[in-house]
């Protein structure tokens, strides 16, 4: 994936936040936007799932689709968040190279 400047800035921000989180208590985080205490979204301060997904889409780490009913133009309950595994791997390699 070709990263643009906005994506790089968003990834750098995410890396800074991950480095900050790594200073504290060791913990595994889920990246699916859940509301529990192990959710990376909550630890990063996102309280709306859509904001969290928008941030991750901006980094190129996920793709997001939502089905819209063409008759009512209402959002259906069908949301799809697809993790771009290779991009997460690249981010983690970069993260590891930034560790002290």
Describe the structure.
- The chain has 100 residues and is α+β, with helices and mostly antiparallel strands.
- The protein has one domain (5-98).
- It contains four helices and two strands.
- The chain has helices spanning 5-23, 40-43, 49-59, 85-98, and strands spanning 62-68, 75-83.
- A two-stranded antiparallel ribbon has the order 1-2.
- A hairpin with a 6-residue loop joins β1 and β2 (75-83).
- α1 packs across α3 and α1 packs across α4.
- The protein is globular, with a radius of gyration of 15 Å.
- The model has no long low-confidence stretch (mean pLDDT 82).
Structure summary, number of beta strands: 2
- Count of alpha and pi helical runs: 4
How far apart are the first and last residues' alpha carbons, in Å?
A: 28 Å
User: What topology, given as strand order, has the largest sheet?
Assistant: 1-2
Order of helices and strands: HHHEEH
Fraction of residues in helix: 40-55%
What is the 3D shape? globular
Topology:
Blueprint: H1 5-23, H2 40-43, H3 49-59, E1 62-68, E2 75-83, H4 85-98
Antiparallel strand pairs: 1-2
Helix pairs in contact: 1-3, 1-4
What are the defining features of this structure?
single chain; 4 helices; about 100 residues; globular; about 50% helix; alpha+beta
Task: Please provide a brief summary of the model.
This protein has 100 residues and is an alpha+beta fold.
């Amino acid at each position: 994936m070709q990263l643009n400047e906005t994506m790089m800035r968003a990834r750098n921000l995410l890396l800074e936040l991950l480095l900050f989180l790594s200073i504290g208590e060791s913990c595994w985080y889920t990246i699916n936007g859940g509301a529990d205490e192990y959710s990376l979204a909550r630890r990063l301060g996102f309280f709306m799932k859509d904001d969290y997904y928008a941030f991750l889409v901006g980094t190129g780490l996920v793709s997001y689709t939502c089905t819209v009913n063409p008759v009512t133009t209402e959002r259906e309950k069908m949301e799809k968040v697809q993790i771009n595994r290779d991009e997460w791997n690249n981010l983690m390699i970069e993260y590891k190279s930034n560790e002290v």
